[in-house]
């Protein structure tokens, strides 16, 4: 049984055991383009990846399934070298602790996503970045574009073009890096991990 057959079985829930870790060769490969129309397996895989992110953000399910919280997952991280990413960025509660009107700032499975334009301004997360495939902390600023325009196909094969900034832009760039064989720490300055370039935006 292939990896995709196993992961897309109706009874299977993606968990941490399915996620490959740094050092695995699949994480360094450039993933293959998805052919349209999508296969049923590819649609189901995307839904399962998004379901994993929902479970990882749900305190009860995360504890039960022993999941690390995540906002993005790329197919190469589950040992499938295809250009598929899932992103699930929750909106924060308001100052009184009330839930947001819209639960998610970004909720999408993207097939063949690509950055078609980006800002000159760069940005990095103040607390650095983590990755479900990396079981250690790697301190330093992961330098990315502050704003990006991304084109992708959804599960129905419809083409989308969206503009992203801030944390949403960072998350999508992190996942697109995965389908290009790039790890987040490749973007940290090895000599000066916390160097701030002129004009760089540091996102809290």
TrEMBL record:
Residues engaged in binding Fe cation: 131, 174, 178
Catalytic activity, as annotated: N-terminal N-formyl-L-methionyl-[peptide] + H2O = N-terminal L-methionyl-[peptide] + formate
Keywords: Hydrolase, Iron, Metal-binding, Protein biosynthesis
Cofactors required: Fe(2+)
Keyword Membrane: no
Catalytic residues, chain numbering: 175
Gene Ontology biological-process entries: translation
A GO molecular function held by the record: metal ion binding
Cofactor note: Binds 1 Fe(2+) ion.
EC number: 3.5.1.88
Pfam families according to UniProt: Pep_deformylase (PF01327)
Function: Removes the formyl group from the N-terminal Met of newly synthesized proteins. Requires at least a dipeptide for an efficient rate of reaction. N-terminal L-methionine is a prerequisite for activity but the enzyme has broad specificity at other positions.
PANTHER family: PEPTIDE DEFORMYLASE, PEPTIDE DEFORMYLASE 2
Family: Belongs to the polypeptide deformylase family.
Protein's name according to its UniProt entry: Peptide deformylase
Organism of origin: Streptococcus acidominimus
Gene name tied to this protein: def
């Amino acid at each position: 049984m292939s990896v995709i057959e196993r992961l897309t079985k109706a009874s299977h829930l993606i968990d941490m055991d399915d996620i490959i870790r740094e050092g695995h060769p699949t994480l360094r490969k450039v993933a293959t383009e998805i052919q349209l129309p999508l296969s049923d397996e590819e649609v189901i895989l995307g839904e399962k990846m998004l379901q994993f992110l929902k479970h990882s953000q749900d305190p009860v399910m995360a504890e039960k399934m022993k999941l690390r919280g995540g906002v993005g997952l790329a197919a190469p991280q589950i040992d499938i070298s295809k250009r598929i990413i899932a992103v699930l960025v929750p909106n924060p509660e308001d100052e009184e602790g009330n839930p947001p009107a819209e639960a998610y700032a970004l909720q999408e499975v993207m097939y063949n996503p690509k950055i078609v334009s980006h800002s000159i301004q760069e940005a990095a997360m103040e607390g650095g970045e983590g990755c479900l495939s990396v079981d250690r902390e790697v301190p330093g600023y992961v330098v990315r574009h502050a704003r990006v325009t991304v084109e992708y196909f959804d599960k129905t094969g419809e083409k989308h073009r969206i503009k992203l900034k801030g944390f949403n832009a960072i998350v999508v760039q992190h996942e697109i890096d995965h389908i290009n064989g790039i790890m987040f720490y490749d973007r940290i300055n090895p000599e000066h991990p916390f160097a701030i370039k002129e004009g760089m935006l540091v996102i809290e």
